[in-house]
Amino acid sequence: MGSASGAAKVAVVRLTTSRMPQAKETSSTTIAASRVATLTEASGALPVNSAASFLHHLCLDRADRWYPLLAVHYLTYACRFRCPYCSNGEGRPYPTMPSPALPGSRVLELLRIIRSHSDHLVLTGGEPLEHPDVAEVLEGLKPLKFRGVILTTNGQGLEPVLPAVARSVRYLVCSLQTLDSRKGDLGYGSVPGTHERILENIDRAARWPGRRFEIIISSVVTPGRIAELYGVYRYAQERGFRLAACPQLVGVKAHADLARSGEYRAFFNFLIAEKKRGARIQGTVDYLEHLRDLRKFSCRPFALLVVDPTGQVFYPCLELGRFAGNLFEEPDLHRLRLRGAAKHGPQPDCDTRCHSACALGFSRLLANPLSGLHEAVCWGRGWWGGLSRPKPGPRAPEGRLASTAPLSRAL
Ligand code: SF4
Ligand code: SF4
Which of 302, 292, 274 lies closest to 58 in space, CA to CA? Predict the structure, then answer.
């Protein structure tokens, strides 16, 4: 939507990009801010308007308003894998957490409420495809008319749900740490053949007839395993996939060894150079530089709405593990923000932490919208970080995609 970039541009010219909910304002910013308030208030009564929400975050982020730019729903925390880097905000691996699962019909009810607050949705976990009614949920997404649905998966259970994915999902995010199947199986803590099956499933997804969803390969940068990620990067680029790389977090902090690792820095320098020459890499250069340097940033948690498997809304963020209330009981997000503040206090002033795609990505985009102007244009049409609307059909070289052999063998 062109208006997203236009709106951002106006805001950048007229307003500072710092947070200023209760700050003293100049007369010009007051006028602009009141226009934004009117716009966002008006959009609250209408179907969600991402551009107005973006402007709200850019200019106001009032403490009594919650206009998420992206909703993230943890369908389940369950996962059969045992990746050594798996960690929630407390450092706990998701598969070790209790994971109540709502029935599919109830999940769709919850997603309907979420839809009234956000144009864009991430379905994640754990492993979301391990939700017992995941097929029903995916099939039920279409009528909810999200403008963009992102599904993150380890790829193991992809095959049976691919038809539903193709109908409802815009960005399919598959984790991949290595092209070496032996190491891959060990990394998942799974039986031999698992990694190979995952590569086959990614192949299947890539070859899906008339594919309209984009494939993103998501890699966690872990100490001692960085060299393998260059191969994963090539694998992604050769097939027209996007690569999303994030540092391993232990709880909310990047693994201590990464900060002092020249190899880590060199990998992000490589990605930044590739990004500058137009490679398909998730995030802006500014965002990648923050990941490289593990820099402190000013967090904007209310740009997101994060909902647990039962409908509980994290306040202010997943990482702190606290809840404002349940969306089934209180579907009004503004009230939930106030309730969260009353229970847990205002947004904390955090130290250097949370170098994740959502927390860092949106915070930097709001702090420095010019850095991602071309990406913000696409954000209006899809997910943050998208460079272009997914085009129909495979974008990898035809010959390779036509091959029946797993793509990894073609490298
Ligand atoms: S696949 Fe994801 S949820 Fe499962 S163990 Fe690995 S990192 Fe954790
Ligand atoms: S930096 Fe942001 S996401 Fe992380 S704990 Fe603080 S408020 Fe939450």
Answer: 302
How remote is the CA of residue 359 from the centroid of ligand 2, in Å? 7
Atom of ligand 1 minimally distant from the CA of 189: 5
Residues 79, 22 share a domain: no
Are both 274 and 235 inside the same structural domain? Answer: yes
Q: Are residues 255 and 237 in the same domain?
A: yes
- Say whether both 262 and 282 belong to one domain: yes
Which tens digit of pLDDT belongs to each residue from 53-64? 888 888 878 899
- Cα 288 to Cα 335, 352, 363, 376, distances in angstroms: 35, 16, 13, 16
- Tell whether 108 is covered by a domain: yes
* Ligand 2 binding pocket, CB closer than 6 Å: 252, 299, 301, 316-317, 319-320, 347-348, 350, 353-354, 359
Domain carrying residue 145: 70-301+351-410
- Find the distance separating the first CA and the last CA of the chain, reported in whole Å: 38
List, for residues 95-123, the tens digit of each pLDDT value: 999 988 999 999 999 999 999 999 999 99
Q: Which ligand is nearest to the CA of 351?
A: 2
